[in-house]
Amino acid sequence: MWHLGSGKFAEAESKGKGMAAANTYLKECVRLYGEAQPFAQALGGSYKSNFDAKIIAARELQAKAEHENKSIYYEPQVAIEDLPKPDPQNYVSLESCQEDLAKPCDLDNSLRHLVPPEVRAMNDELKAQIAQMIQDEFTKVS
Prior knowledge:
2 domains; 6 helices; 73% helix
């Protein structure tokens, strides 16, 4: 919501209209940040300080948008339900992560020598036994 609200604010300033929509998006942003604030407080550290900086910036920009809408733009307030929903294709890159998930971890290669060959043989034997048990169960069913 932050990017959407701040983007609409910049667009309204350049076009001279749309400040009410920007104000509504920023109000929703501040509301959502308020809901997330207990989680940031619980995490603490640098996450909390970054979150605090972001929520302060959102509140300041929302107050500025509200002030400018009342004093310059004079646009009627818009309910969040009346605003168009953003297209997720514009904000999310839908890339497949299957390749990253299937790739073996680098740590596996460096620690592979720590697993004794006997344990690897027992692991293969266990896999074979489980596969046989599954196969036996499926043949019983059919």
